[in-house]
Amino acid sequence: MKVFAFLSMMFLAVGAFAQNPAWKGKFEQLDQVLPTPNSYRSGSGAPGASYWQQRADYVINVEVDDNTQLLTGSETITYHNNSPETMTYLWMQLDQNLLAENNLSAQSKTGAIRDSVPAAFFQMMTGVNVSNYKGGYNIKSVKDATGKALPFTINYTMMRVELPAPLKTGEKFVFSVDWSYTEYNRQEFHQRGGYEFFTEDGNYLYTFAQWFPRMCVFDDYEGWQNKQFLGQSEFALVFGNYRVRITVPSDHIVGATGSIQNPKEVLSKEQLERYERAKKTFDKPVVIVTQDEATAKEKTKSTKKSTWEFYAENVRDFAFASSRKFIWDAQAVKVGDKTPLAMSLYPKEGNPLWEKESTKAIKNALELYSERTLVYPYPVAYSVHAANQGMEYPMICFNYGRPGKDGKYSQQTLIGLVGVVVHEVGHNFFPMIVNSDERQWTWMDEGLNTFLEKETFRVRYPELFDTHGTPKGIIPFMKGDKTQMRPIMAQGDNMRGQEFGANGYTKPSAALTVLRETVMGPELFDKAFKEYAQRWAFKHPKPADFFRTMEDASGVDLDWFWRGWFYGTENVDVAVDEVKWFKLKTEKTDLEKKNVQVKKGDLGANKSNNGTDFTNGPEEFTLLNTPEQMYGEFRGKVDDNAIRQKLEGKNLYQIKFKNVGGLISPLVIEWTFKDGSKEIERIPAEIWRINENEVTKTFVKEKEVVNIALDPNFELADVDMKNNVFPKKAAESKFDQFKKSN
């Protein structure tokens, strides 16, 4: 604007304004990267006026053969076409085909032979099949509601079902699938689900996951999500209602997605009384099946059968666990206007750790997540003990954490159990309710969930809190080789194990921590995060919906943040490159009579400082009266003496910051004064918006400074503490402090 032209001329005259020819556009908006808003997904990040999603309801009958481990099932699916498109075929997921002969995952797996490798790990490391297990579905039939066979085509882990007539908008189609497969030994294949066989007592503990053919997602974003299941990236699923009847040996206890519909038929009189009492007990768990009762059943092994019936409403999946070894405890939890039942199932091998900690961890997770997102809407939440596993499904999860045979366990085992239970129970919120596409965007459920897991530890388990998922904890990964690193926004199947874990879980969590604690502040962040969860509860959000909602609900421009943390691989490394200390010269001179001219170097010489410490004291500088020609058309004058008075006796510190790592970051500065007091000062990331490589800023302090440190509490994920400190001699001790605390 012309009215400020004279100001620009003045700044140019004193050399304080510099163009940045190397500008890389890190503060550009993401509009050209994100999908264009439309009537389905709005520019604010909320579902649009025309948003739609499909629905699939299931009625399933399944039987577990405890002798052969064969799972036999029959399902009837009612598929609702709520899309604006007419459909001529449907896609289903056949996840168990991951272990079928010549599956795509095995064919594409790479690995080399190494000498002296334990035999149990040979197949996992090389991809060479050395097992006698015959996996994959046996699809016996696919029929319409009249019993007429429907043509189908199996493509590895996907099955296309041809419709007998086009399925128009608003119509539904009912069809059935009969199938079976043999459950696998999870110790052999290290997959989700499977069974553990306990050689000492000859019993099985089953965790059934991805156990039935399921509908793929069809949405406004990409049509059918029928990307093959390769084992690492997880699932995209449709909401619906489930009624499932599970037939097992009559001495088994079954935990599953949903509420038990026939407790009187499957529980003893004593168990039923304890179960009903647990629904009204909020202070501690009620033991429904005791350890003594479970141990007794391990020896008798009933040959009779019982059928457990469960019903679940508005869920995206269904899983269950079954074993005669299960001890069962339960406790009611108060969240909002709901009182869900927190329940744990575990064999005696899990005690005494599980009876002390599992249900308590469910309670803590449900309470904190409900506070930060939305009130937990489902009636139950199970934690089931399964060795070396952490896996989530609606209302039920399978978790590791086992003491030694003597019942003793380490602090790390305790942290592991509490962490996995909180994490997997937390997945009820992301992605079981806020139903993102796990196959494509791992971070949208794992990263957000790891962030809230970390928050649960910080608030409910401060004595167990560590650096997992924090800015400090992600530094070793961020310092890695950038040529071998992919951004968070990459698809998970294309990442190596360590990179998958970091990009899917801990780096997004660390990023959200920076966003909450440093960029936005807890109040704005929490409101925006809750807005996202509530907008997209029981819907299918995409990354743009999260990014846009966080900005829309907070009023904070975050495009630079998403661009750097989620689309890039650079790290935070800001250096305190140069510090100059100034004081206003106080000699009494009649400045008005001087021939005033601004000379090159007057505002920055500081020749007396050696650039490494403050030992030579401050450089004095003079403020001249403002020349008449600099007022331009203004008739008034600035009070030059008032400005001098404001600065008289003050310490001015001119600091040059260099962005060595490339990732844009706020600045958190710790000032240590001569009297021993300290001050934390926070500078927003927008300081870099004109020059992304190097900035100079002047600070005015009442007291004399003896030490300046960037990121003193390790909240920015700065990867090099050695260049964060002035005087330079203090840098090494600060770096040693970081290494010790990391």
From TrEMBL:
Supply the CDD domains for this chain: M1_APN_like
The stretch of residues making up the signal peptide is: 1-18
Q: Which UniProt keywords apply?
A: Signal
The residue ranges of the Peptidase M1 membrane alanine aminopeptidase domain are 412-565
Q: What molecular function terms (GO) are annotated for this protein?
A: metallopeptidase activity; zinc ion binding
Name the InterPro entries on file. Answer: Peptidase_M1_dom, Peptidase_M4/M1_CTD_sf
- Pfam families in the record, alphabetically? Peptidase_M1 (PF01433)
Q: What's the protein called, per UniProt?
A: M1 family peptidase
